[in-house]
Amino acid sequence: MRTLRIAAGAEAATLAVLLANLLTVHARPVTSLAGPLHGTAYLVVIAAAWQAATTADAGARWYALVPGVGGLLALRRIRKTPAPGIQEG
Q1: What is the largest CA-CA distance in the chain?
Q2: What is the pLDDT along the chain (89 residues), one digit of tens a residue?
Q3: Do 60 and 81 form a contact (C-beta atoms < 8 A)?
Q4: Count of helix runs (H) and strand runs (E) in the chain
Q5: What is the pTM for the complete model shown?
């Protein structure tokens, strides 16, 4: 779960850096650094979400596939789903 949280934050932050760079100065070094970091964070989010999501919450796995904010959506979905064996009420 910790890996997913870190990777989701890195994915969202690098996307923000890439978009800000695109809308302002479009500096090639920023793109060369943030682009691969964003791609790596995206892949880590997908792998971590597939391991962290329980079978009761397979929807979080699909949320992780959304580029940019998928990791944050998957985290929210996993946190809302009760752990197996815990009954509410």
Answers
A1: 55
A2: 899 999 999 999 999 999 999 999 999 999 999 999 999 999 999 999 998 877 667 888 899 999 889 999 999 988 887 666 555 54
A3: yes
A4: 4, 0
A5: 0.83
